[in-house]
Amino acid sequence: MIIGHIDGGTNPNSVNGVNYVVWSLAEAQAAKDHTVYIIVFGTPSASDVTYATRRGISFLEIRGTLAFLSWIFGLNNSPLFDIVHFHSVFLPKQYLVSLFLKQARSFVITPHGLSWVLLKKNSLRKLIYIKLFDKVHFRRAGAVCSLNSEESLVLTNIFKVSPESIKPVFNPVVSHSGYLPRSSSEKPFRVAYLGRLDPFIKGIDMLLDIASRLPHVSFEIYSNDRRSSLDGLIIPENVFFFPAVYGEDKFEVLSKVTLYIQTSRHEGFPISILEAMKAEVPVAITEAMQISEIVNERKIGLVMPFDAIKASALLDQYMHDPVKMSQHVSQAKHFANENCNPANVATVHLDIYTQVLKSLDSRSTAV
């Protein structure tokens, strides 16, 4: 099968959840002997090309508006791909590409974390865009991949995607070995967060409030975002900032903390949460996150109310219960290994592609 992924970055190591998923999925599909392209609107570096080539991935480079227009007009006559996989949402180029595909429904979309909270931000502009473009784009797709039940509700109610077109998937996460997790009873307690310093979406205001109520706990924030985004917020003395970490360095950090925390107001299924699960680190999230239902049902972490007073008390109690944390860690690792192994996730997506192509074949035969 010849597969084209659109809207992964040229750099496989850039800090971006969508980019991480695209590269992990593309690499796993290439390992299964499929021909895989990442379509990029720019020029990858020589090191990026080398990285991709070693993993059996090719770049399709589209440089500039004229090259883009020439490419999409040619799609109808000489299709390069059996299936195109669009990633993310609210991207006009994707809509244009889909219009020129030779087979109208020969594409799949993964929005990567649609939620009611996300739609409320710049809501008027987004609703206009959805009405004019994305509603058509999503309804024409052969399938739409969804990370959780809330995203599925947004897809059916706002984008008007038929329920049978929505396919549940998990994000792929690569394992890193060589680091033993810290004992859950070891003190002093260290809590880590890795990600953007967005006070609202990422709930950093909530995180700082929780930290202020647990002065005996060290809170470590790893991010390359400027601290100016936190202007106006009080930074407790037990909160420490560090540069972002990647790859093996990230897993080394995780191996030294008591717990990984995420206090977002909106989140699909964050890669960092899955990485913590694979690293055998207990996780704590807010009930506002879409994955809270899964975490609760599977007993794979602590779900906190979006209330700093209640959350801090619950978090403190949790960290003083090593038996419960150990149980959650064991179940979380099993969950992540079973559902988020890149090879397994690649197989799920390949099955979806096959279903889409079979559906197209049956329609063309009927005609």
UniProtKB/TrEMBL annotation:
SUPFAM superfamilies found in the cross-reference section: UDP-Glycosyltransferase/glycogen phosphorylase (SSF53756)
UniProt domain Glycosyltransferase subfamily 4-like N-terminal: residue ranges: 15-173
CDD domains, per the entry: GT4_PimA-like
One example of a Gene Ontology biological process annotation: carbohydrate derivative metabolic process
Chain segments annotated as transmembrane: none
A Pfam family: Glyco_transf_4
Every Glycosyl transferase family domain range: 185-331
GO molecular function, a single term: glycosyltransferase activity
Superkingdom of the organism of origin: Bacteria
PANTHER family linked to this entry: GLYCOSYLTRANSFERASE (PTHR12526), GLYCOSYLTRANSFERASE EPSF-RELATED (PTHR12526:SF637)
Full protein name: Glycosyltransferase subfamily 4-like N-terminal domain-containing protein
